[in-house]
């Protein structure tokens, strides 16, 4: 029996992560960092690393630039064993972020550069998506470009809407097309109402991560909840992608929604215990 063919499409970036005691106030002043690291970023890269960590082989589709950071991105992705990296080179810079982080889990992400993505999807990526059993479409121009092929191919579609507020137009095509919809509660004061609305719009499973309060899922069968797994938190970056991967891998293994949530919470601790997206990168980037 062969494993399901999985494609993850979206951002892979090179990030500068700066740890602060608190996020900057909106006034001119000086802060001293508690530490910094340059490392792989991007929500799709994070999912690919954690799926590899769980033994789920697949293809990561991403655009990178023609700058030195592109080589750093691809070098780091080389540690996602079993993952095919289908990276299209586009002229100019790769995606780069400056992330200001605090020990309380707060984050301010500043886009330093974004690749000039072609309006036409990569033909090789279209081929992978069309043949896939599961396609994860992350918020990005890459994911948006592959959405028609993913729908036409008949795969089970997954997406991560992050801090969706229920009205943002860029998120809407992803939310409307995908059966498995993930988000966090940063963009809404009533995540349960938003989750119910997403279910009514066509999703079969909606999952909302709540940080230290755990996560909740909504399906036609009702509500499911799980607490966060106790662990030492070094860095919250990538925890949502790890949670997604844990849920996804458990689903592929035939687990029900409640067990998938618990598996997501367990995998999230793998990201929380490292300064990188995944411990697969510890000592390697």
Topology:
Elements: E1 6-9, E2 13-20, E3 35-41, H1 43-53, E4 58-64, H2 68-77, E5 83-89, E6 96-102, E7 107-113, H3 123-131, E8 134-138, H4 141-153, E9 156-160, H5 172-177, E10 180-184, H6 191-200, E11 205-209, E12 215-219, E13 222-226, H7 239-252, H8 257-272
Helix pairs in contact: 1-7, 3-4, 7-8
Protein name: Sugar/nucleoside kinase (Ribokinase family)
Organism: Promicromonospora sukumoe
GO molecular function, one term: kinase activity
Please describe what this structure looks like.
This protein has 285 residues and is of the alpha/beta class. The protein has a single domain (6-280), classed as Ribokinase (UDP-N-acetylmuramoyl-L-alanine:D-glutamate ligase, 3-Layer(aba) Sandwich), CATH 3.40.1190.20. The protein is built from 8 helices and 13 strands. The protein has helices at 43-53, 68-77, 123-131, 141-153, 172-177, 191-200, 239-252, 257-272, and strands at 6-9, 13-20, 35-41, 58-64, 83-89, 96-102, 107-113, 134-138, 156-160, 180-184, 205-209, 215-219, 222-226. Strands 5-4-1-8-9-10-11-12-13 form a 9-stranded mixed sheet, with helices on both faces. Strands 3-2-6-7 form a 4-stranded mixed sheet. Helix 1 packs across helix 7 (239-252) and helix 7 (239-252) packs antiparallel against helix 8 (257-272). It is globular, with a radius of gyration of 18 Å. The chain starts with 5 loop residues before the first strand and ends in a 13-residue tail after the last helix. 46% of the residues are buried. The model has no long low-confidence stretch (mean pLDDT 96).
């Amino acid at each position: 029996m062969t494993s399901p063919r999985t494609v993850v499409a979206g951002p892979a970036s090179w990030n500068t992560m700066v740890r602060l005691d608190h996020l900057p106030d909106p006034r001119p002043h000086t802060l001293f960092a508690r530490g910094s690291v340059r490392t792989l970023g991007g929500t799709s890269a994070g999912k690919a690393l954690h799926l590899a960590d769980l033994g789920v082989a697949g293809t990561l589709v991403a655009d990178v630039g023609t700058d030195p950071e592109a080589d750093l991105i691809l070098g780091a992705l080389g540690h996602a064993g079993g993952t095919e990296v289908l990276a299209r080179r586009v002229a100019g810079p790769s995606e780069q972020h400056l992330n200001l982080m605090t020990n309380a889990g707060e984050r301010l992400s500043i886009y330093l550069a974004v690749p000039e993505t072609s309006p036409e999807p990569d033909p090789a990526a279209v081929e992978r998506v069309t043949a896939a059993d599961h396609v994860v479409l992350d918020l990005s121009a890459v994911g948006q470009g592959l959405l028609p092929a993913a729908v036409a191919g008949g795969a089970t579609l997954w997406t991560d809407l992050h801090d969706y507020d229920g009205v943002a137009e860029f998120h809407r095509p992803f939310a409307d097309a995908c059966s498995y919809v993930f988000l966090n509660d940063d963009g809404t004061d009533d995540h349960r109402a938003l989750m119910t609305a997403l279910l009514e719009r066509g999703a079969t499973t909606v999952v909302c991560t709540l940080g230290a309060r755990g996560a909740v899922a909504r399906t036609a069968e009702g509500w499911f909840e799980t607490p966060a797994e106790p662990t030492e938190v070094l860095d919250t970056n990538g925890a949502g992608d790890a949670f997604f991967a844990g849920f996804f891998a458990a689903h592929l293994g035939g687990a029900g929604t409640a067990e998938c949530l618990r598996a997501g919470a367990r995998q999230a601790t793998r990201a929380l215990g490292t300064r990188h997206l995944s411990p697969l990168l510890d000592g390697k980037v």
